[in-house]
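sorry to bug you again but im stuck and you know this stuff better than me. what follows is a protein written twice so to speak, once as letters and once as structure tokens for the fold. mainly i need to know what kind of three dimensional shape the backbone takes. anything you notice is useful, everything is just below:
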Amino acid sequence: MRFRDLRSASSFRLALFFAALFGSASLLFVGTTYTLTTSFLSGNPDERMRAQAISFDARSPHNAEEMIDQHGLLDPAGRRPFGLFAPDGRWIAGNLKKLPNSLPRPERFFETKVKAGGEDTIYRSFLHRLPNGRIVIVSRNIEELAQFRQRLLDVTVIGLLLMALLGIAGGTIIGLASLRRLDGVTLAIESITRGDLSRRLPARGSNDDIDRLVRVVNSMLDQIQRLMGEVKGVCDSVAHDLRTPLTRLLAILERAHRHNLSADEREIELCNAIQEVQQMLRTFAALLRISEMEDGIRRASFREIDLAQLVEDVVDYYEPAAETKGIDLLFNPDLTDMPKLISADADLMFEALGNLLDNAIKFTPESGSIRVELAEGPSVIVTDTGPGIAPEERGQVAIRFHRGTRSRGTPGNGLGLPLVNAIARLHGMELRIEDHVGGCRVALATLPLSLSSSIPAQGGLNRINLASRTAAETLAIPS
């Protein structure tokens, strides 16, 4: 942090700007006060002086001389000296006995300094020329008014200097504090750009503008760190999970190449190789679909659908698979009387619910039961009597390729529930794994409006059809 950086600090320049603004406003205020005050203090006496000078027009020369001499006797201290002069400037009467060196124009007020007792005294005078050519000057001592003006001017100058000093000092303090705070933010950002994604921008807790910005940036960094962790986990999982099928594929191809196989045996090996490749392609297709859901590019196909009818179609589609294992698959849409129309992509919702039912059928033991129900929100809840998901693993079900300890021995690649979670987020919903005694309870719950994205409804009612089922059957990925 350098002092020369203050010149470019916006807080320092802003503080100086406001100091100059308030200084200008103060100067204007004091100047207006000064002008009005001095005008008021001198206005009425000036009018009286003018009236006194003009009153001599109606008097005879002798009477005017007597009145001016009489005034001099009544004003021995010379607070209001009068003087009567001949047209050539010769003194005639009064206690003001000398004209100014530079004679001002008649009918004008002027100020002069008179030396009395070793000190200069300031007088304000009015010069009036009588009809007979004589000159009369009416004056008054304005030393106190001059002192008041000087004091007011001194106070104004001192106030402006203090304001300038305080403005510069305040701007410097604010600028240095701002630079110090921005230096902390800059150091944190530099550390983050070097790869330390765990670093966060410092916050004061004052809830000011910078604190609010820091909170938003830190939230963004949390999201970036989470996504980077997921990317790393996906890369590690892809490398780990594809190594086995690639090894099997290599073994199949080596057997077909090295051994003398019959045509039937070679056909079997080729079919096995094709199955391995198809499984890998399904894995990559699922990854691409999850990315597609997270990007939200499928929202253009949203339509208003009947959720109850969609759930019923999914249940009907998976009912034969449940019957094969002797599992009771229960769903009664008549039990719910809430509005069931939602804005969604029918194919994606069918795929998400199909994955949930497929998982439930896979992990529910024979003679078990699966119950599908609608709840307020609306939400779809699937409850089974399987082994369930351990509480410590529920937060990881949406991670790609993650497989719980209870599902390690079953077929799958850990992409089913991440795909369901991506579809749920696209529809303003969330995937919840809830507590349930003697089984597993999974819900697709609608988020509150403030937490979900606004998805406008488009088009009319779109009922799920056989083509949707076929697409879901092709793209559903067992977890």
